[in-house]
Amino acid sequence: MVRSVHSPLLFECAWEVANKVGGIYTVIKTKVPVTVREYGDRVVFIGPLSYKTAPMEVESEEPIPGSPMAETIKAMKERGVKLIYGRWLIEGAPLVLLFAPEAATTGWTSGRLIFGTLLGFLPLQTITRPTRPSSLVIS
Question: For the chain, is the Cβ count within 10 Å smaller at the N or the C terminus?
Answer without folding.
Answer: N
